[in-house]
């Protein structure tokens, strides 16, 4: 595909294959393409042209995957779905956080630049696309409302939050580390709702290319000493089902493809 003639192709990214369980099975006319050692699946969901891909874990891998989607496939928007650890008070396991913007919590080029600021960008936070984020938030609200009335293993009383998500190249898995991370960010004026390992990288790539980006994360743990408990089970039984339903709702709300 020629990226200069960008079509209405939506990329759905996740770090792990389990986080996209159900989406590939629903992809109509699925065909695989391998670029840069990564497998991408092209097809349609709810009549929308879609590319499914795995960012893999960490900011470097996510950066490369996002760049391939934009530069090679010419996607017009990227949506990230996966899991994260909850940081802010009131963000509990089973909730969904839709990102308003992203920050790298492990970026520190001081004293040359203020802590968290991305060198030569003059900013520490990269915003998500407002219109796409609004559609994703509405899709999450609808999906969780529908799940509350259905017989399913999804957690009762789950809520949708929208705000800052912090990304870094380490798995935050202790209460002490979580508290230190929160305190350091808050001291710099950043109140993060959740922590994960890829979103800030994708947000920066999309900003550079001028491509719309939105992201949602299901809270799998509280980024503390319980963060490793039953993670595979949670992803399979809760997060993947959220992703499936929310992406289905999002496809319904997107504009008609070109």
Question: How would you concisely characterize the structure shown here?
Answer:
This protein has six helices and ten strands; from the N terminus they run βαβββαβββαβαβαβα. The protein has helices spanning 23-26, 59-71, 130-147, 175-187, 199-209, 231-253; strands at 10-14, 28-35, 38-45, 48-54, 77-86, 96-104, 125-127, 160-167, 192-196, 212-221. It starts with 9 loop residues before the first strand and ends in a 5-residue tail after the last helix.
Provide the fold topology.
Elements: E1 10-14, H1 23-26, E2 28-35, E3 38-45, E4 48-54, H2 59-71, E5 77-86, E6 96-104, E7 125-127, H3 130-147, E8 160-167, H4 175-187, E9 192-196, H5 199-209, E10 212-221, H6 231-253
Parallel strand pairs: 1-4, 1-5, 5-10, 6-8, 8-9
Antiparallel strand pairs: 2-3, 3-4, 5-9, 6-7, 6-10
Helix pairs in contact: 2-5, 3-6
Your description of this structure?
- The chain has 258 residues and is α/β, with parallel strands linked by helices.
- It contains six helices and ten strands, in the order βαβββαβββαβαβαβα.
- The protein has a single domain, classed as Rossmann fold (3-Layer(aba) Sandwich).
- A five-stranded mixed beta barrel has the order 5-9-8-6-10, surrounded by five helices.
- A hairpin with a 2-residue loop joins β2 and β3.
- α2 packs parallel to α5 and α3 crosses α6.
- The chain is globular and about 50 Å long.
